[in-house]
Write a structure and sequence with these properties.
The protein has seven helices and two strands; from the N terminus they run H-H-H-E-H-H-H-E-H. With 247 residues, it is mainly alpha-helical. The protein folds into two domains: 56 residues; 165 residues. A two-stranded parallel ribbon has the order 1-2. Helix 5 runs antiparallel to helix 6. The two termini are 59 Å apart.
Length: 247
């Protein structure tokens, strides 16, 4: 639909009557031209003026009817209820999120300690190999040919063991990190599902049409009065639900 047509549609005016008035004025103007050519211009102008004034008065806009602003969005009901919550506060004070975050941190800390122990074993093995190499090197001149070959095989085997330890270390670390990441993703999904379900329930109970969110990092809400901030109310409800689940 053309923009002009949309604007006409949005304004509460008697559109059909306006069109009729326009047609009458055009007819009157045509009559004026014809009668002017016949030398009856004065009388016809008077008639035209009378018609215009009469129809204009009859089609005068009712001042009691509200005129809709052109920039109003068509189809959006007036008085919609919009509220918002602070995501940073939810993350800091929603007990379920806090508990799950602590659980993930504990797993990460445990993994870091375990990997530090595995890394220490590799370093100790490398140091032991270096000591053994220097020991054999210092008495190489006193060793027989067979002893030298045996010493060489011994050093090679120790080196292969260290390489195997390093390979296992990296594989194990990668596997555990992926498991931890997957666990965190699942936890975040559960938290979001619980929050969404609760927000849907309270929105229906309170007649809220939209619940927006904002944080210090990403803030799509440019302005919001404090009266519309329901963060505290949502936190109370979420934590009460979580307590009932934990029992």
């Amino acid at each position: 639909m053309p923009i002009f047509a949309k604007i006409i549609k949005q304004i509460h005016l008697p559109v059909k009557k306006i069109i009729v008035l326009a047609m009458m004025l055009l007819v009157a103007a045509a009559c004026n031209n014809k009668k002017s050519a016949d030398g009856k211009d004065g009388a016809d102008k008077a008639d035209s003026t009378n018609i215009s004034e009469k129809d204009t008065a009859a089609l005068e806009i009712d001042s009691d009817k509200p005129i809709k602003k052109v920039y109003e969005i068509e189809g959006v009901p007036e008085g919609q209820k919009i509220v918002y919550v602070n995501l940073d506060s939810l993350q800091e004070k929603y007990q379920y999120f806090v508990d799950e975050n602590d659980r993930i941190k504990a797993k990460l800390s445990s993994l870091e300690k375990e990997m530090a122990g595995r890394e220490k074993k590799i370093i100790d093995a490398q140091k032991a190999l270096q000591v053994r190499f220097q020991e054999l090197q210092s008495k190489a001149q006193t060793l027989t040919g067979n002893e030298l070959k045996a010493a060489e095989v011994e050093l090679q085997n120790k080196e292969m063991d260290i390489l195997k330890m390093q390979e296992n270390y990296h594989k194990y670390k990668e596997t555990k990190e992926q498991e931890l990441l997957k666990s965190q993703e699942n936890t975040n999904k559960k938290i979001r599902e619980r929050i969404d379900a609760y927000l849907a329930k309270v929105a229906e109970e309170n007649g809220w049409d939209f619940i927006l969110s904002y944080s210090d990092i990403t803030n799509p809400v440019l302005y919001g009065t404090k009266k519309l901030d329901i963060t505290s109310q949502i936190l109370v409800g979420l934590n009460e639900d979580y307590k009932s689940i934990k029992k």
